[in-house]
Amino acid sequence: MANQLSKIAVGAGLLAASSAAMAADKPNILAIFGDDIGYWNISAYNQGMMSYKTPNIDRIANEGALFTDHYGQQSCTAGRAAFITGEEPFRTGLLTIGMPGSDHGIPDWAPTIADLLKEQGYMTGQFGKNHLGDQDKHLPTKHGFDEFFGNLYHLNAEEEPETYYYPKDPEFRKNYGPRGVIKSYADGKIEDTGPMTRKRMEHADEEFLESSLAFMEKAVKADKPFFIWHNATRMHVWTRLQEKYQGKSGVSIYADGMLEHDDHVGVLLDKLDELGVADNTIVIYSTDNGAETMTWPDGGATPFHGEKGTTWEGGMRVPQLVRWPGVIKPGTKINEMMAHQDWLPTLLAAAGVPDVKEKLAEGYKANGKEWRVHLDGYNFMPYFEGKEEKSPRESLLYFTSNGELNAVRWNDWKLHFATLEGNLSNAVRFAPNWPKIIHLRADPFEKGPSESQMYLRWMADNMWLFVPVQDVVGEFFKTLPEYPMQRGTAMNPASLNYDSLKMQEKLQQLDKVEQEISKFK
């Protein structure tokens, strides 16, 4: 009996050692997202031009890399969906913001970073804004996360019940009103902690911060690698600050909010130091979409043309700073193109699955489920490690919130098939006979078409681009029939235009015909 107990003890010791080794081998991952953070609202980018400083966010760049050509999407939901699924939001149907009462959200066939990291032994937690669906089936804890504590919508939607004209009928509120701030767990437990009121907005990010810190401690104590997606509500409208931050910057209410947001980033970084895991933790800082300039002064700043909701650079190019000890050298500047979709395959490579894109294309089991999807992201780890000179991403598609393909970036060139002229709320889509051509190194702020007297002559010299760029579009649409897809929704039904979906239906029909023909070969 004593001998058997000894064997059990030795076995338990080996198991514990194996668990500790796994935690040591696999990096922790802390992804910090702001909300509607302008490219120019971080002092590492604006170089002090806006007078206030964001030293903690800047610290990530100083100890890692600053990206100049990183892309989110044109809306909150689309940007978050691109990051967590690694797929174009056109595939997942998550192109525009999720609204209270809607049944539309993240599909059950789309694996998330959390789903895939669970298979690698990670503890997974999401805290703060989700915005990927209103129903229980859309909660992060139904999509690979062990724990979730956060809100489900944009802040101005959550304060609608406190506005003057909002219906007082309880039945209306039940059917169409926002849910409260949700706490949920992978075992199915769901708790509504109460509404996100205007008053609660002053302190909500502190609540989410405490949850992220507690989850870090729990994972480290358990000797498990962790993936935390921390989603602040700052700086989405409307900014409601606690008294100690009001007027602190001396610049604007947005700048005051940025100081609070930066302080919270500092607390997260300090916690990694305190727990002794900073050297084995990948830290990503970014945001969902371009700056919302139409609500200035309670809105972000960007040097690029356009804003959130448009497919100009100002609508989709976002700040990104990454600290990756032992992989990215401190003080690095990265000018290569990268997008949120690229993080899923990159982080899985860091966790030991460098071929997750290929595996998912064929069929891959993770977190107790069989997945088969086409990832639109690329593994950047070889590039970050210096094994490749160029990034693996050569192109980018710019979809509107209504599912229209407005533009394509191919290397340093960008072609606008159509443009959204106006701001987030009143933009009108124009589709000219000839696509607008931009060289994003020669004209990064896209001023040429509207300000240069020589633009038309220059554009005519570069019409050779039309064919290779059409090939980029064709390659994307070829992948649609073979893999799952969800139709998107639109804020304005009058603007629904799913020509691309019609193309998908035709491709599916063609695929069936080809399958039938192959039977006779």
Automatic annotation (TrEMBL):
<keyword id="KW-0732">Signal</keyword>
<feature type="signal peptide">
    <location>
        <begin position="1"/>
        <end position="23"/>
    </location>
</feature>
<dbReference type="InterPro" id="IPR000917">
    <property type="entry name" value="Sulfatase_N"/>
</dbReference>
<protein>
    <submittedName>
        <fullName>Arylsulfatase</fullName>
        <ecNumber>3.1.6.1</ecNumber>
    </submittedName>
</protein>
<keyword id="KW-0378">Hydrolase</keyword>
<dbReference type="GO" id="GO:0004065">
    <property type="term" value="F:arylsulfatase activity"/>
</dbReference>
<dbReference type="Pfam" id="PF00884">
    <property type="entry name" value="Sulfatase"/>
</dbReference>
<dbReference type="InterPro" id="IPR052701">
    <property type="entry name" value="GAG_Ulvan_Degrading_Sulfatases"/>
</dbReference>
<feature type="domain" description="Sulfatase N-terminal">
    <location>
        <begin position="27"/>
        <end position="353"/>
    </location>
</feature>
<dbReference type="InterPro" id="IPR017850">
    <property type="entry name" value="Alkaline_phosphatase_core_sf"/>
</dbReference>
